[in-house]
Amino acid sequence: MRSVKHHLIHAACFMLAFPLLQTFSAAQVVPGTGTRLTQVGDDFEDETWKWIPNGVKASREQDEQVRSPTGVSSNKRWFESPKRGMPDHIVRIDTPPGGLPGSKGSMKIQTLNSGIPGINSMQMEQDDLIMACSSRVGIINTSRTPNCLTRIYLPPFDQWENRSGSHFGYRIDLKTTISEKEKVFLFSKTVRKQEDYWPGFFVEFHSSHDGRFKEDEAYLIIRGNNLGHEIKSLKLSPGWWTLGMSVTGDGRVHYYAKQGVSNLTPGDHLYSGTPYNYSAEMFATHFFNVCNMNDGRTWSTPIIIDDPAVFTAN
After folding, report:
1. Are strands 217-223 and 239-247 parallel, antiparallel or unpaired?
2. Which end of the chain offers a freer environment for a tag, N or C, measured as fewer CB atoms within 10 Å?
3. How do strand 165-184 and strand 187-197 relate by DSSP bridges?
4. Do residues 126 and 216 lie in contact, with contact meaning Cβ atoms separated by under 8 Å?
5. 219 has which bridge partners?
6. Strand partners of residue 259
7. Distances (CA, A) of 195 to 5, 22, 62, 255, 274
8. Angstrom distance (rounded) from CA 218 to CA 208
9. pTM assigned to the model
10. Averaged in consecutive runs of 10 residues, what is the pLDDT profile of the chain (314 residues)?
11. Using CA atoms, how far apart are residues 298 and 286, in angstroms rounded to an integer?
């Protein structure tokens, strides 16, 4: 028989742990919670919606060239990334079967010439499409529990780029404050500065044609854990999926996903953490990546997006 002392210790430990469990549970804010920010987001129902390229795409990450003015959507809710440039094919299309009830329009994104315009690097490159958020509603403090979600349609595997690796990303733009050593003459001092980072999801494809995999398959990858490493998550099938992320006042990021287009629930929670060991302070926006082999011939996998939205829970 266990001693009374043992039971008292066990009870005390449980009582100490229980508030922590409650705090952790309470921090699990399901994407789609709170007030939808109508100044941002898009449902693509406007039949006149179109993309305006405004010339050659940007490639600041590779060669410091922005090539302004950058591309923008006709409703001014999307803009080209000055860092990596825009996908080559951004169009409004009819919503594929199985989408959100009543939805007639969605956005299709695909790219061919990623990377530096006019140069085929013969390696994987990526283009970005960014939602205008901070320019419309300001940068959102994480104390307001910003959260976002989107629906994406994955085509049948025979329509995917025949390449194993990352094909698509859905990410958020977060900001934190870090301390860095800065050398001044013979001395060094610690300075504090703002650091941007971009956690999120990637869709990874395993092609049956590269010899390592018996059949085509896709997985949802979370980026990332507190070291920035990727976490393999759900196995994906063609069709509609709902992805979402929330950021809580303790600086953690929470990842959710499910098959279909119904609202996310607590049961769709996949992972929570502090990517790169950063504690998030501000939420700027969410955005999409499309990736392909930049060989001048191979189009990226066509991805269809509907109803991306941003909410604040507080």
Report:
1. unpaired
2. N
3. antiparallel
4. no
5. 204, 235
6. 241
7. 50, 30, 20, 21, 14
8. 11
9. 0.90
10. 34 33 56 98 98 97 96 98 97 98 98 96 97 98 98 98 98 96 81 96 96 96 95 98 98 98 97 97 98 98 98 95
11. 27
* Ordered domains of the chain (ranges, CATH): 35-47+88-312 (2.60.120)
Report the DSSP beta bridge partners of residue 171: 200, 287
CA angle 109, 113, 117 (to 5 degrees): 125
202 contact partners, CB below 8 Å, separation of at least 6: 166, 167, 168, 169, 220, 221, 223, 230, 289
Alpha-carbon distances, residue 127 vs 17, 81, 112, 156 (angstroms): 45, 8, 10, 22
CB 154 within 8 A of CB 289: no
First to last CA, the chain: 50
β-pairing, 165-184 with 282-293?
antiparallel
Between the alpha carbon of residue 224 and those of residues 60, 96, 198, 303, the distances in Å are 25, 31, 9, 22
- Three-class HEC string of the chain: CCCHHHHHHHHHHHHHHHHHHHHHHHCCCCCCCCEECCCCCCCCCCCCCCEECCCCCCEHHHHCECCCCCCEECCCCEEECCCCCCCCEEEEEECCCCCCCCCCEEEEEECCCCCCCCCCCCCEEEEEEEECCHHHHCCEEHHHCEEEEEEEEECCHHHCCCCCEEEEEEEEEEEEEEEEEEEECCEEEEEEEEEEECCEEEEEEECHHHCCCCCCEEEEEEECCCCCCEEEEEEECCEEEEEEEEECCCCCEEEEEEECCCCCCHHHEEEEECHHHCCCCEEEEEEEEEEEECCCCCCCCCEEEEEEEEEECC
